[in-house]
Amino acid sequence: MLRIANLCLLVLFPVAWFAPLLRAGLLPFFSLDEISVVTGLRALWEKDVVLALVVTFLALFAPYMKTIGLALVQFDLAAPRLLPALHVLGRLAMADVFLVALYIVLAKGVGVGRVETGWGLYLFTGCILASLAISWATERQGRGRS
Fold first, then answer.
1. Average pLDDT over residues 18-27
2. Residues 101, 22: Cα–Cα separation, whole Å
């Protein structure tokens, strides 16, 4: 069951990257009405390359590498000693959700326009949390076998 759930994340993460995280009007950096992870990254690459690199790692690479690594462990293609590193990747991926939430709060607090959360934010957050839960359960299951 954990294997199937983890493999589902390999499909759900890319969907979450293109889904609307928020709908905004008059925000700096963004000329679009709906902002997704991908459109946000595109805008960041034009304005701030260093921040774009950090967010690209946190939003795309960290969660996907963690999911692939966990699948390798679950199918006995990698050693379980990889699990602590996968936990670190999961925590880094959660940092991206924090950055999006912080941006929404700042935009609303400053009154720079209207900001509404989109269904993609919930999907992306759910994927990150599911990935953390799956890795936790996989680690517990591995300890039970030892």
1. 78
2. 10
